[in-house]
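Reopening: structure tokens for the thymidine-5'-phosphate complex, inputs below.
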Amino acid sequence: MLTKKEKIYEGKAKILYTTHDPATLIQYFKDDATAFNAKKKGTITNKGVLNNQMSSFIFQFLEKNGVKTHFKEKLSDREMAVRALKIFPVEVVIRNRVAGSLAKRLGLEEGRKLQQPILEFFYKSDPLDDPMMSETAPVALGWMTQKEVDHVKEQVWKINQLMTKFFDDRGIDLIDYKLEFGKDAQSNIFLADEISPDGCRLWEKGTGEKLDKDRFRRDLGKIEEAYEKVCKLICEGRP
Ligand code: TMP
Ligand code: ASP
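Re-run output (same inputs, fresh job):
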């Protein structure tokens, strides 16, 4: 049985532990919620359990469709076994509609449909508030090779096609979301982190009701209910 050895990283929503196997970590999901790079803090009851369940389901769906992810196995309510990776300090945001910081930056109305998805790179740094950067920056700064950037972008387009259809089939519009990638000791690249309403904007089709962390960021209430609704739609929808 896989058991936790040593805490090696504690982020805002998750903790990573080593195991007896150097290639495997345990990712533990907390109920802690933050927004605006931890300037706003709170708790969403049961969020860790729901996000573990949703992420496990989506990682397995992506794996079945040829996307390499760090997911190995769901171990318990709040824990999954994942591959040990070196995470690139880059957050990739994919936008299918205008919302959030894009709406603010360009003075556009939220909800506007795009002719094609927008892909943005951000530097993963809380002290700097995750600044946006050019996609040429990770190579220029020696964080990634050009080949790695190209591979990540290729995966991102594939993931977006799979994910928009996945959510569409479940009555949800996938507005935008953030992905992180990392590489293993052999330099193979995998999708990492989590896929949950913490890092995605999910609007209910028809009503446009927000079913994601914007309910926490914007004090809209009924946060737990929204996460539970998405979890039900994801896990009880079509495989
Ligand atoms: P943004 O509109 O604030 O740039 O966010 C775009 C998407 O990325 C949204 O679905 C939320 C997600 N996101 C994160 O998961 N973590 C972050 O640190 C940021 C800034 C955004
Ligand atoms: N993930 C970031 C934070 O926790 C930003 C956000 O999701 O709004 O502060």
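The longest strand covers residues 113-123. The helical segments are 47-64, 100-106, 137-140, 146-168, 214-217, 223-236. Marking as resolved unless the reporter disagrees.
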